[in-house]
Structure formats: structure tokens, C-alpha cells
Amino acid sequence: MTQLTAIILTYNEREHIAACIETLRFADHILAFDSHSTDGTQQLAQDGGAQVIEHTFENYPAQRNAALAAVTGKTEWVLFVDADERVSDELAAEVRRMIASENTAAGYNIPRHNYIFGTLTRHTGWYPDYQMRLLRVGRAHYDPAKLVHEVVVLDDDAPGTLENPLIHYNYKDVVQFGEKQRRYSAYDAEILYQQGVRPKWYTLLSMPVRHFIWRFVTLNGYRDGWHGLYLSLLMARYEFRKYRLLWEMYQTA
Predict the structure, then answer these.
(1) If phi over 0 gives left and psi between -120 and 50 gives alpha, with beta otherwise, what is residue 251?
(2) What is the dihedral of CA 182, 186, 191, 197, to 10 degrees?
(3) Strand 119-121, strand 112-116: pairing
(4) What are the pLDDT digits (tens) for 54-88?
(5) CB atoms within 10 A of CB 178
(6) Alpha carbon separation from 130 to 40, 113, 211, 228, 236 (Å, rounded)
(7) Does the pTM exceed 0.70?
């Protein structure tokens, strides 16, 4: 049984996979858990020394749980890393120290440095952006009901926290940003609808304004300068879209 397996969920990640694998050499085993990529991702992963397992994608928690099942009994710990993320030498050393220590936590949150449009975003809600990625196999799984922004369920309720951040090359441009936010806003609107949240006519204006203030003021977006202002406005726009979609659901019900 190996001590640590690094797992990368992949689908058409030709642009990122080689560089991601290069930062995971400190792990005892690297696994690319692939959703039938068509751009050569699997071959690049194998060329980089990773094992490749193909598994049909249903949703994110199901995919991560399937990856956990694939290594159960073969490794003690897993570190989930997305293809557009990188592990620094400092984080690698901290992970190694943590799994070698006599600790009791079943999972560890890791902060992330998000690069959005090529700019490190230290505020506006994108830092510390904790992600529970270091998991003890057999004592953690993903909530199957949380289809987006996956949630880890631990056997105990006392997760640990690491200090050194993952490096996340997030949205490379506003087009990619818009595509993802449109999906997220549609998903969030559906959740609100299922919960019976009924918007008022003024909600379409009040919620985007409140969201902008939350991002730009409460979450210190102003400290990111023009970049923080732009991101706060973009996120307010998608908050408007979420409540517009929710409004339309009730109008057509």
C-alpha cells in the first residue's frame, strides 16, 4: 500500500496535464482519472508517468467518489488536484509532513491562490478559497447531493487546515469566465426554485447590488483595485442572471 496518491480528474486537459503532473512528483503514485478525453490527455498523462483510469462522467461528486473507490485498499491518503492547479514545493513538503505525523483528521483544507485573467486575486472572495483536497482513504467521501461545488463528508467533524496554498490558474479570459458562471447561475437558480424561494419584483435589482457590495466592500475587493472592481461587477451580473432565471421559472410554472 502506498502512502500518498495524487488524483487528477481530467477531461480534455491537454493544455494543463503535463505541467500539473510535473508538480506532483512528490506523491508516491499519480492517477489521472479521465472522462474519456478526445484531445490526447490520456497519452500525455501516461508519458508523464501517471496511471490513467477512464470512467464515464456523471457528475463531480460521483466522479470523485469513483476515484476514491479506485484507490481504496491501495493507498492511505489521496490529494485531489485539478489539472489547472499546481502544487508548490512548500505545499508538497507540508503535505508530506502532515501525512507522516500522528494526526487524527480525516481531511485537510488547503487555501488556493487564484489567478483570474492572469492576475493573482487576493481578495474579492477568491482567497483563501479553502478546498478540502487531502483526504484519508476510507474516512471521507463526497456528498452525492452536491452536484456543483462538491462537499466532502468526513467520518469525524474536525478537519485540519494546511497553510501553503494551491496555485490555481483559474479563468484565463472573460469568455471562459462567462461560460462557467452561466452554468453556475442556472444551477443555483434551480436549487432556489426547489427550495421554494420566490423572488419579488425588486429582487432582480436588490440582490445584484447586495452581491456587489459584499464582493467589493465586505470581501475587500477594493484592495484588488480595478481588477477587484471588474470581478465584483461581473459577479453582480451573474447574480442578476440567477434571479432572473428563478423569476422566469415561476412565470412559466
Answers:
(1) alpha
(2) 110
(3) antiparallel
(4) 999 998 999 999 999 999 999 999 999 999 999 99
(5) 14
(6) 31, 10, 20, 19, 22
(7) yes
